[in-house]
Amino acid sequence: MPARPSPTRLLRIGTAAAAAGLVLVLGGCSSDPSTPRAPHTSAPAPSPTHTRPLLTVQQADQIVDRYQQVNTVANARQDATLLGTVEAGSTFELSRADYKQWSTFSAKEKKEYLEPWSYTQRTYYIPAQGKATWFMMRAHTTAQGKPSKNPSLAVFDNTDGKGFKLVFSVHGIEGKLPAALRGRDGLVTPVPATATSGSLAPRDVTASFEDLYATGGQQEGTRIDRTTPSAKTALKIYKERNKELGPKGGRTRYFAAKPTHPEVYALKAGDGVLALVPLAHTSELMVTNSGLQISPSKVEKLYGAKTGPIVTDVFHGQAAAYLPVRGNARVLGFTYSVVDAH
Fold it and tell me: What whole-number distance in Å separates Cα of residue 163 and Cα of residue 190?
C-alpha cells in the first residue's frame, strides 16, 4: 500500500509540543505455511524437447514456502540476520526499516504486522536457464482464509548463486494485470532494463514516476500515464504538498534520489513489458516564518532528526509498471518507507 510521508509537527519556538501527528507505517510480512494454496499455472518441468527452465515449479514452490516460514519466525523475533537469509536488495532494506521503526507502531499495527498470511493462487513466470538469475510470481496474499482482492507481484533472485531470496514485493496491483508472454516451452522472456517499450525503458520508470512528486510531472513525468490510481496519488501529494504544515508558514519540496538498490526486473507481457522498479526520493519540510520550528515525528527522531527549521526524510520504495508498445507507462502499484531522516 502506498504510504504518504510521515507528518511532522509545527512548533512555535519556546512553546510546548503540539498534539501528536499521525505516522503512517507499512504493514509487515508474516506467513502461515499451513494455509492451503489454490492451483497455480506455471512453467512446465524440463523435458528433452523443452529448453531447460531456470528452476521447476516444484522448486519455486519450495522457495516461496521456505520464505514464508523463515519470514514468520524472523518477524516474531525482529531478527534481521535471520530475515537476511531469505530477503535481499530493496525488500530487505524496507523490512529492516520496519524493524527499526517497530517501537513507533501502535498495538494494532504490530498485531497486523505479525498476523499469519501466505501467498496463494500462485502463478510463476520462469525464464530459461542462462537468460536470468530470477523468477517472478503473481499471487494473492491470504490471511485468516481470505485472499486479497488485488494480486501481488514478487521477484526471487539468486544473485550470488547461493540461493533465491525475495528482492521485490509489490502488493495491491491495480487494474488489469497483463499476462506474461510465454514461449512454446512455457517460459517467459526477460527484458533488459535499457530496452525501450513505448515511451520508456524499464530503468527510466523510476525517475519518471518520482518527477510526479518533484514537479507535478512537468519533466520526465510526462511519459507516465496519469489515469492510474498510483499516478493520481503521487500527483495529489504534489498538489497538496504545502498543506502538510498548515497555514502557519511552511512548505514541502520533493527531490528525486538514487535508489540504494537500482536493480530492475522486467519481462515481456501483453504487447509490451511488465517491470518491477526501485523508487527513491527525499522530502524537505521547511518553515518560512522565523518564529516557527518543526518538531520531528517519532519515526524521524529514530534516525536522528532534530527540532529546527528544516526536516528531511529519505524514502525508498518499489513499483510495478506496465510499458505498452504504444503510449505512456502505467504504474500499477507502489510502496514507500522512510529509511533515513535528518
Answer: 20
- What's the average model confidence in pLDDT over 150-159? 96
Strands 134-143 and 118-125: antiparallel
**Is 89:157 a contact under the CB 8 Å cutoff?**
yes
Question: What per-residue confidence (pLDDT) applies to 250?
Answer: 83
The owner of cell 491470504 is: 142
Per-residue pLDDT, 142: 86
Looking from the CA of 207 toward its CB, the CA atoms found within 13 Å total 8
Other CB atoms within 10 A of residue 185 CB: 16
Q: Which three cell numbers stand for residue 14?
A: 519556546
CA distances to 59, 80, 234, 285, 336 from 179, in Å:
22, 34, 26, 41, 26
CA distance linking residue 206 with residue 185, whole number of Å: 32
Using pLDDT thresholds of 50, 70 and 90, give the confidence band for residue 147: confident
- pLDDT tens digit sequence for 202-240: 999 999 999 999 999 999 999 999 999 999 999 999 999
* Average pLDDT of the residues in 45-52: 62
Burial class (CB in 10 A: 0-12, 13-18, 19+), 102: middle
Phi and psi for 317 in degrees, rounded to 5?
-160, -165
Residue 41 has a CB neighbour count (10 Å cut-off) of 12
In whole angstroms, how large is the CA radius of gyration of the chain? 21
Residues 6 or more apart in contact with residue 90 via CB below 8 angstroms: 167, 168, 259, 260, 261, 263, 278, 316, 317, 318
Which range is least confidently modeled, 23-37, 71-85, 247-261?
A: 23-37
Backbone conformation region of residue 229, classed left if phi is above 0, alpha if psi is from -120 to 50, else beta: alpha
